[in-house]
Amino acid sequence: MSIEDLDFPENMSVLFNRMLRYIILKGGRGGAKSWNVARALLVLGIMFPGLRVLCAREVMKSIEHSVMQLLKDQIEIMGLSDYYDVQVTRIIGPGGTLFLFAGLQTLNAVNIKSYESIDICWVEEAQSVKKLSWQILIPTIRKDDSQIWLSFNPELDTDDTYVRFVENTPPNSAVVTTNWRDNPWFPKTLDAERIHAYNTLDKETYDHIWEGHPRMTLAGAIFSSEVSAMVRGKRYRPVPYDPSRPVHVAWDMGWNDQNSLVFFQILRNEVSIIDYAEGSFLTLPEWVKFMNTLPYTYGVDVMPWDAKTKSRQTGKSDKGILKGLGRKRFVMGRQVAGAANNRISQSRLMFPRVYLDNSPAEIVEVAGKVVLHGPARLMECMKRYSRTVPTTTGEPAAPKHDEFCHGADAFGELAVNVDRVKNEMNDSVPLQYEKHEPSVKGVM
Fold this sequence. Notes:
Layout: E1 22-26, H1 33-47, E2 52-57, H2 68-77, E3 85-86, E4 91-92, E5 98-103, E6 120-124, H3 131-140, E7 147-152, H4 160-167, E8 173-177, H5 188-200, H6 203-211, H7 224-232, E9 247-252, E10 259-267, E11 270-279, H8 284-292, E12 298-303, H9 318-324, E13 330-332, H10 339-350, E14 354-356, E15 362-366, E16 369-373, H11 375-384, H12 405-417
Helix pairs in contact: 1-2, 10-12, 11-12
């Protein structure tokens, strides 16, 4: 079997370049990315007997959630049944060629070892892969001349996959954008859907769905217009720490859910968010130890109202514990009806005052646990903060309780209480320098 005999679009010839480390296929609906990858892998499995292929995605609850059915269908369409044996959880080909399937979210230091001999790892729906999963997977695919292939429809321009592979493309990579017009098998039925979308949807939505352009915010995001205005107004940019002013910290308390911290400074009416951190299963002493490693002089802690409630088990409140750890000044939230909607409305009012640093988030280890540290993660939370939509009503309801809500809640706690925060290093000595300092707007 020769490549010349195969029916592949011209821009898919890159799939047969065995010299590349990364092959990155991105685009919108109808670009036949997965179709072409599946076909190419099956051909390579014949051309190179003994090839080992891992087909991965972020979450794979069962084999039915994998690309196994797609591969099985292509085996039939391409007439390759004599070459491949489709089993329950794997596909075996000539000379020991092997297709395996895995969910990246379940990988750990133990089971990842079994994938060190992989020749090609295909990551489908790569837009959903988290930073931690990439950090585990990439060094695992280490065999000489091994490759990592990605296929995805971009979601947000701040997604780790987009930033890592498109905005900061690694060496020895090929990035291919493939859309409906590049698909020689693009069906007339789907083209009719595309034309209808072109005539009825706004340009941003059409370009996202059919041209593969990333969105600025998640569809239906609560703060969609506010985040867009922040980006257009160039208020999402480098915002350096000013050592002449204290750094205040807004908390959203959590244990198995994320504990989220927003680090901010105030100058007149402006709020400069310079840092952010979130993590689970860290005690308050561990959080304070982490905070003390940062080069900040701290002001007040802005905390939710229930942080002053004493635990029946310990007889201590979160505020009391932090005070015992050397945190000295607090602004406590007030208990109000409709707290979530109050945080949302106050956040919308505060957004025009906010400058958010755009430094990327990094995974750091704190007391043996994983912490996401960096203000870009907060922007990700604000872009994805959205409401549930019950199928019974089809109407937006309460905000979703997901991995993004905690950062948005900490931002909201800041918004509710920001005008109660004063730049004082202690209770009696106000800072005297504010009138002499330039606005953060002047920082480029």
